[in-house]
Amino acid sequence: MDPGKDKEGVPQPSGPPARKKFVIPLDEDEVPPGVAKPLFRSTQSLPTVDTSAQAAPQTYAEYAISQPLEGAGATCPTGSEPLAGETPNQALKPGAKSNSIIVSPRQRGNPVLKFVRNVPWEFGDVIPDYVLGQSTCALFLSLRYHNLHPDYIHGRLQSLGKNFALRVLLVQVDVKDPQQALKELAKMCILADCTLILAWSPEEAGRYLETYKAYEQKPADLLMEKLEQDFVSRVTECLTTVKSVNKTDSQTLLTTFG
């Protein structure tokens, strides 16, 4: 065999063998010649992730929901909550009659709702936290939440305006030293023409809401002083207006002098 030919008799080129070029296709965009290819891939086309901190909860109910459950047996508040996909009732105008307490959706998850049992309640698109009557509403505030967000209640009171004649600020005292916070809230209620009610537990707060709604149509006779019409009672009342005379002395005077 001729050393200058291959097995098939084709003459081989003289000199060192030529190198073969291999091209590896890339998924990246082609770079025009003369331009340096970037070392790292651009992140403009990648989806951005919002790393901004979440906003603080706007209500105590949202704050309570964000806290971990106390135990495995903890349950969610029960009541006439709308099912998934349902929308809350339409806004209730001041002066409109309703047999139920209208609860704002922002109060969903508030433990107070578990203890509103003696009167019906339902969710509705209302400005206050609770609409208790035609001219009565209530805002709920936890002192623990108030210490974390002291400006929250200012905006809520301003949003009420003059739509309700009786505006109640129902405060749940759940801190050890509430004196300073209660002093500030009392001053705020005086300036805002608002009634301050204190409750030391969610159960007590629920009872206040029930009572306001149950006595919505009741007259004020229970609060008014009852005047006796008989002669002895009226004379006794007249004599006891003197500081040194009590009811026993008045009975003695009536027995002695008739």
TrEMBL record:
Similarity comment: Belongs to the ERCC1/RAD10/SWI10 family.
Organism classification: Eukaryota, Metazoa, Chordata, Craniata, Vertebrata
Domain of life: Eukaryota
Organism: Pan troglodytes (Chimpanzee)
Intracellular or extracellular location(s): Nucleus
Transport among keywords: no
Keyword Transferase recorded: no
GO molecular-function terms, A-Z: damaged DNA binding
Assigned GO CC terms: nucleus
Every ERCC1-like central domain range: 100-213
Region spans: Disordered: 1-39
Name of this protein: ERCC1 isoform 13
Pfam assignment, any one: Rad10
Keywords: DNA damage, DNA repair, DNA-binding, Nucleus
Residue ranges crossing the lipid bilayer per the database entry: none
Alphabetized InterPro entries for the sequence: ERCC1-like_central_dom, ERCC1/RAD10/SWI10, Restrct_endonuc-II-like
One GO BP annotation of this record: DNA recombination
CDD domains, sorted: ERCC1_C-like (cd22325)
